[in-house]
Structure formats: C-alpha cells, structure tokens
Design brief:
The protein is mainly alpha-helical. The chain folds into two domains: 37 residues, no CATH class; 386 residues, no CATH class. Helix 9 crosses helix 17 and helix 14 crosses helix 17. The chain is globular.
Length: 425
C-alpha cells in the first residue's frame, strides 16, 4: 500500500506536467507528511545524495563538452571523419557514427553530441542528398554512444549510487560502445544499398593526413583521459578537470577559436545544466530512500522471481522495465531511483554490478530516442527543424542495431567484464 501511494503521487505530478525534479521532491514530501515522518528527513537525504566527491566530475565533463563545441573542435573532428570513412557507401552516415565515437571520448553525454555534432552532420547529409529521416535517425542513434564510451556522466552517477568503481565502469563501456558503432555502420551499409546512397568522398591519403594533423590535438583528448585513468595517473573526477584544462588550452592557446565572451556563455550554460542534474540527483535520492524504506526491493525481487528464477529471464524482464522507464524518466533520475531497487535483485541472481551498469545505461540511452521524454528527440527536432512526431518516426528503425547490442550485453556477461578484469587484475 505505501508503495502504491508513493508511485501514485509521482505519477500524478508527472501527468500534471511538473518537472521531474520537482515531481520527485513533491511526491516524497507529501509521502512524508502522510506517513507522519519529520520534514527535515527530506533535506538531509537530498543533501546527502549530492554530497559525493565522484559527482564533482559531472560539472567538469559538462563544461568540457560545451567548450569543445564552442571552440569549433567538432568541425575538425567531422573533417577527419569524412576523410577517414566518407569514401564508404553511405559515407556521411559512417562519418556520423565515427564522429560520435571520437566525441564520446570528450563529452560523455548524448545531448552534447546531438546538439554539437548533430548540427554539422544533418546539414552536411542534407546537402549531399540524404533524406531527413535517415539523417536525423543516424544522428540520434549515434549520439547514444557518448554515454557508453568513457568518459560517461550516467556511469559516474551509477558508480556513486551503486558504490562501484567508476574506473572499471568506464573501461567496461569501451567494447559495448565500439560494438554499437559497428552495428550502426552495418545497418548503414544495408540502408545505403537499399536507398542507392553513394560515396560522399574519394579516398585520399593526402587529405586524410592533412585532416588528421588539423584534428590531432583534439583526437588526443580521449587518449589522455582514458590513458590517464587506466594508468592510475588520475581518478575519473580528476580526469574531468583535466578534460576542461585541455579544452581550454586547445580553444584559447592553440586554435584561438574560444573568445572570452563565449567562455562566459559556456560557463553559464554549464552552471544551468549542472544545477538541473544535481537537483534531479538530490530529489531522486530521497525518492530512492523512500522506496527502500517501503521495501520496494523485496517486492520487486519477489515479483520477478515469481515469474522465473532463471537469470536470463529475470534480466530480460529487467530490460523491459528499464526500456519502459526510459520512455518516461530522465536518465539521471532513473539511475538514482532504480539502482537501489534493482541492483540487489540482479546481484542476487549472480549478475556482475559492472555488467548491470552498462546494461542499465544502454537501456536508458535507448530511452532518449523514445517518446514522450526522449531528450535527444527534442534537440534534433529543433536542430533539423522538423516536427517531434517526424523525429520519432525517423529514429524507430535505428533502434534495431542498438537493441541487438543490448541483447549481447545482456546475455554475454564477458562482453562487458573481460576488459575491466584484464586492466584491473
């Protein structure tokens, strides 16, 4: 009964159009009143939810991504990707994916990818005769690679909530992230043949070398970050600071494309985004604590195990739950609320927490491409100047390769765990 009341309050707030952070906090506060608990519990739990050193990485990774976009570093990445894979059939589709893989090693967010590279990619694909649905669909799908390949904001939050090594989570995301890119590129090859898309550039070692030289220092960003974390030179939180310092160095000293006025604007955008993320984390923390207090974990575990005790069946059901949740809840809120509930269940059936972290984030990234709360859909609808409904229809076919990778991550544990075991042995 208390569990139904808590979710009933949250559902009512969301249906009324209340922002997710306010809905979580309001539902928690009303539940505390109804159950006679002191109101100060709300404050203490919300403050405790954001009082974490690893969460310091969040604003710095957001700032690094914003700086990369503002300093026009994305243009250099795009030009290098064109020279590298633009000669393939359906070339700009492949460029789209490769550009996202590179940018993923700098920003860690799907939104930064969609808003930064997406603007360049969609315009280029339109100019080369690609239809809007294909251009928008591949841009949206490739942006979901960002939070899987390190660094990753959702994995930072998962690591904090699950009390798992963020370094191991980052390393675990490398292979699935590359698998997502490979699956999307295979899909592009098939679609290019069906739709008659041609090559968008001729292969030239000279052009490739020149574009590589122009983008070399930008391409070093993921090498510095991942190499530094894997070698133990700095923690993931310190890596976020290093990313900001390097982005400032490139934008102000090397490329000289980052003006002071733009720096102020980027800083204000970062403060705004960070405030939103931290407010969601704080509100979701108290909501998650209330779920634990009403024994939601035990109830969910009993419900899942009543269907089957087979680990693969339970994981399949958890995937379905996360895909549904991803349609309605923002990623950070979903992680903060559901990890305390789901993690004990999956660990109890023998699932590695590192595998579950990648599985959960991948599910929620797919949720960014599904209505009604898919943030990437809203961004690309604005960038491409098309309706939200048309953007949804464009993204649906590209869920197939993403879901295929999700299936591999779900049913092949070693796919995500072998590299962290190798690096951290």
């Amino acid at each position: 009964m208390p569990l139904s009341i808590l979710f009933g309050l949250l559902s009512a707030a969301l249906l009324a159009g209340v922002p997710i952070a306010v809905a979580l906090g309001l539902a928690s506060l009303v539940f505390l009143w109804l159950t006679g608990q002191p109101d100060m519990v709300l404050v203490h739990r919300m403050v405790g939810g954001v009082d974490s050193f690893p969460l310091l990485a969040v604003p710095f990774f957001i700032l690094a991504g914003n700086l990369m976009n503002s300093a026009l570093i994305t243009d250099r990445i795009f030009a290098f990707a064109v020279a590298l894979v633009g000669w393939l059939r359906g070339g700009l589709g492949h460029v789209n994916v490769v550009g996202s893989v590179i940018f993923a090693g700098m920003s860690g967010t799907a939104v930064a990818d969609a808003g930064g590279l997406g603007t360049i990619e969609i315009k280029a694909m339109r100019d080369h005769g690609y239809d809007d649905r294909f251009a928008v669909g591949i841009t949206a799908a490739s942006s979901t690679i960002g939070p899987i390949i390190p660094p990753s904001l959702p994995l930072v939050v998962y690591g904090v909530v699950a009390n798992e090594s963020i370094g191991r989570l980052f390393v675990a995301g490398i292979v699935p992230g590359l698998a997502m890119a490979a699956a999307l590129m295979i899909y592009i090859v098939i679609q290019a043949r069906l739709k008659g898309y041609r090559r968008d550039a001729s292969f030239s070692l000279t052009v490739l070398w020149q574009s590589f030289r122009r983008a070399f220092l930008a391409l070093l960003t993921p090498v510095i970050l991942i190499g530094g974390m894997m070698s133990g030179m700095f923690t993931p939180t310190e890596a976020a600071v290093a990313a900001v310092a390097y982005a400032l160095f490139l934008g102000i000293v090397v490329y000289r494309t980052l003006r002071w006025r733009a720096l102020v604007r980027v800083s204000l955008e970062t403060i705004e985004t960070t405030a939103i993320v931290m407010t969601i984390v704080a509100a979701a923390s108290i909501f998650g604590w209330l779920l634990a207090s009403v024994r939601a974990t035990e109830a969910l575990s009993a419900a899942l195990l009543a269907v089957s005790s087979d680990p693969y069946v339970v994981l399949l059901l958890v995937n379905l739950l996360l895909l549904i949740v991803g349609c309605f809840l923002e990623t950070i809120a979903a992680i903060t609320i559901l990890v305390p509930v789901l993690l004990p269940v999956v660990v109890g059936i023998g699932v590695d927490p590192i595998q579950f972290g990648i599985l959960m984030v991948l599910n929620l990234m797919i949720g960014l491409l599904t209505p009604p709360v898919g943030m990437v859909l809203f961004i690309l609808a604005r960038v491409a100047n098309i309706s939200f409904e048309e953007c949804v229809r464009a993204c649906l076919p590209f869920l197939v390769p993403l879901l295929s990778v999700l299936g591999v991550v779900t049913f092949w544990p070693g796919f995500t765990t072998w590299l962290p075991a190798l690096v951290y042995r």
